[in-house]
Amino acid sequence: MIIVLQNQTSIKLKAATLKKIESEYSFVVEVARKNIPRISQSINGDVLDDYLSKWEDALSDKSVLMNLVADNSDHGFDMWQINPFTGIFSPKERWNILRGKTSTTHRLTPDGV
Which are the contacts of 29, defined by CB distance < 8 A and separation ≥ 6? Predict the structure, then answer.
């Protein structure tokens, strides 16, 4: 049950993140670029450093970034767990997303990007 809830939460946040990238790409990139060094300081491990490097690289191309966010593979799920998007939503926006009170529908497939 907990895993299902976490998955639903991730799906909602990923869909909302895709919408935010579409509508406020520069803002999302600015926030993510500020977060990456902070995250890097708090983690330890080559795999996690590799994930952050992939996020950093993806920030320079909107479609690459959207495909990475929309990736539903095991690797995409792992990448999402260390995403740099903390702070792109206000607390109220985040609460509304998690409660389903906002239009965040977006196909979570590379074809939907």
Answer: 59, 65
